[in-house]
Design brief:
The structure holds two protein chains of two kinds. By secondary structure, chain A is an all-beta fold. In chain A, about 0% of the residues lie in helices and about 50% in strands. Classes of the chains: A mainly beta, B mainly beta.
């Protein structure tokens, strides 16, 4: 069974640009979660999508947004990139809100 | 008070010893508790979860939960150098699939 997949693996942008990160959950999982992990810091909860709806968001500005598609894959958009947005962005999926399984992450670098 | 607290370490143990990792959480209503292992540069990997007070054993790993004290721990018996990683405690808080992570404890097992 395929795990959570994320693309791209690496993304380099300049300040002010927009970044789009993608995630495909484990087959059958309906919930997708996004986390930010800045260097040396813990996982910070960004967004939770379930059945196509945004269920909860963490303490991040509105320029962090996303959506979940009918096939349960998800997209995270970060607008007006700032240097401090450089981080590893992790996507996780779950079934029924229990254990979350993580993808390999997208490393975003903002120059 | 942080929602989920862990000692950042580093915790260093000799090969073959027992490693003990601790975590406290703030939400008394939390029901689900997870331990993830994260190798440097990789995404978190779920190794244990526990829902009920007491101990839960899986191979060399034992998770312990004390809801009255809002405390969860992970014991690793017969520690191996391959266990060297950062261990993340995660708690499903507030009854809405809102997973909060501790900052992680870095464990080093010395041969």
């Amino acid at each position: 069974e395929a795990g959570v997949t994320q693309s791209p693996t690496h993304l380099i942008k300049t300040r002010g640009q927009q970044a789009t990160l993608r995630c495909s959950p484990i087959s059958g999982h309906t919930s997708v979660y996004w986390y930010q992990q800045a260097l040396g810091l813990g996982l910070q909860f960004l967004l939770w999508y379930d059945e196509g709806e945004e269920r909860n968001r963490g303490n991040f500005p509105p320029r962090f947004s996303g959506r979940q598609f009918p096939n349960y894959s998800s997209e995270l958009n970060v607008n007006a990139l700032e240097l401090e947005d450089s981080a590893l962005y992790l996507c996780a999926s779950s079934l029924g809100g229990a254990e979350q399984f993580f993808g390999p992450g997208t490393r975003l670098t903002v120059l | 008070q942080k929602e989920v607290e862990q000692n950042s370490g580093p915790l260093s143990v000799p090969e073959g010893a027992i490693a003990s990792l601790n975590c406290t959480y703030s939400d008394r209503g939390s029901q689900s508790f997870f331990w993830y292992r994260q190798y440097s540069g990789k995404s978190p990997e779920l190794i244990m979860f526990i829902y009920s007070n007491g101990d839960k054993e899986d191979g060399r790993f034992t998770a312990q939960l004390n809801k009255a004290s809002q405390y969860v721990s992970l014991l690793i018996r017969d520690s191996q150098p391959s266990d060297s990683a950062t261990y993340l405690c995660a708690v499903n808080m507030y009854g809405n699939n809102d997973m909060r992570f501790g900052a992680g404890t870095r464990l080093t097992v010395k041969p």
